[in-house]
Amino acid sequence: MSSTRFGLAGATLALLLTAVAGCSAGEGVEVDGADGGAAGGVLNAAIGGEPDQLDPHKTSAYYSFQVLENVFDTLVEPDANLEMKPSLATDWTTSDDQLTWTFTLREGVKFADGSPLTAEDVVYSYQRIIDEQLNTAYKFGTVESITAPEPTTVVVKLSAPTPNLLANLGGFKGVAIVQKANVESGEITTRPVGSGPFAVAGYTSGDNIQLVRNDNYWGEKPKLDGVRFTFVSDPTVALQNLRGGEVQWTDNLPPQQVPALRDADDPTVQSVPSTDYWYLALNQARKPYDDVNVRRAIAFALDREAITRAAKFGLATVNQAAIPQNSAFYYEYAPYSHDPNQARQLLDRAGVGDLTMDLMVTSEYPETVTAAQVIAAQLEGIGVTVRIRTLDFAQWLDEQGNGNFDSFMLGWLGNIDPDEFYYAQHHSGGTFNFHKYRNPAVDQLLDRARTETDQAARKQQYEQVAKQIVDDASYIYLYNPDVAQGWSTKVSGYEVRTDRAIRFRDVSLAR
Length: 511
Hints:
Layout: H1 13-21, E1 42-47, H2 62-68, E2 76-78, E3 84-86, E4 89-94, E5 100-105, H3 119-131, E6 143-150, E7 153-158, H4 165-170, H5 180-185, E8 198-204, E9 208-213, E10 226-231, H6 235-244, E11 249-250, H7 258-263, E12 268-273, E13 277-282, H8 292-301, H9 304-312, E14 316-318, H10 340-350, E15 355-362, H11 366-380, E16 384-391, H12 393-402, E17 407-412, H13 418-426, H14 440-449, H15 455-472, E18 475-487, E19 491-492, E20 508-509
Parallel strand pairs: 1-10, 1-11, 15-16, 15-17
Antiparallel strand pairs: 2-3, 4-5, 5-7, 6-7, 8-9, 9-10, 11-18, 12-18, 13-17, 13-18, 14-18, 19-20
């Protein structure tokens, strides 16, 4: 998922304490246990920003998926080792030619409103993504048809073998199974109806989203009565609220404090390497960034170690390619040393001097703001003046989608299969190829690799992809961050995941 793609700045502590205290007066939503009544209680979780919307097929914001992970289901889902396991589908079979996949659904699954979830809902959800060319349509590139011959049977027919089909159908909630009536009413953007362990009970824009336990959930019922997601943009405030007991969980921790927090007992803080990557992208639809020499000049001018130290305080690993070291598809390739002289020579070769570059970042990902300041200082040394433009995330997404930028910094979060690291971003027809990269050789490799069934050959193809993308400076990769999260000692049953999925279905909260 993108972050990528995945507006609150400068909120005061007083406002935030009000936010976590409860609903607005006019909201009219009661959450069992919020006042210490029913067993289980409500977990208050502080996240770094507000979702742009709650339609899983249309959002690309990580803040949305933090909530939606607890509301929706997919056919299959990744376990802690990122291996795909049953969810709505209990099992599946593949034809000998690997072109027909047959999924068997659980009996008796219901949406949170009590209506049945059947194979027709799966067909509707996938066809909606395909027909409307929504964010994850690229995951269905080899799908020829999706049918529901029986209420508990889904048949997916493919045009070519697709080794990552399970990851495509279950890697994250952007391919969730939605309810047609909820979509057609338009309520899915703020009051989505899923089949997951929790249901949305209230949404106060600029404040919080309330979930309650879904008593129609097909799995083991959550122990919590509910979860309240509060939007806290300032990591220092989020940590203060965690220490003070106003919230019991957050992933918005000041990175410079994480090492010391991990060594302490209260609150509990853990970090693990992630499957994420952060990068700088240059708009190749604008001159002079259409010239590979200019892009490579900027890549040579950057000191990634310094950028990573400033942005992440050691909670990241520098990487000049996308896929992190903990993946079987990791490819060690680092052609750009920090070399301002080489950078200036490349700019001279391109005939570029006294360049002013717009760099778009977002206040809801503070590391982009910090990194941008370091990047600006480094590029000044090669005669490039950087004008940092800091937007709230909704504005940032609009500007990105409209191509109104010279450059931007952001990250892609929660990737599993190598196709997710590259296809949507770098294929000439890719959904998220906002920087307008075009290389027919890369297109061909990406098309071939996503249908390659020999794993060794597939790895080799993605290594070729990675090398060409880095050489072309399609993205200028910076680092792979760690996932760092903290929670109260009253919380048990929570697990930090490398894919950054936030699951509260197994969590208990001591009263």
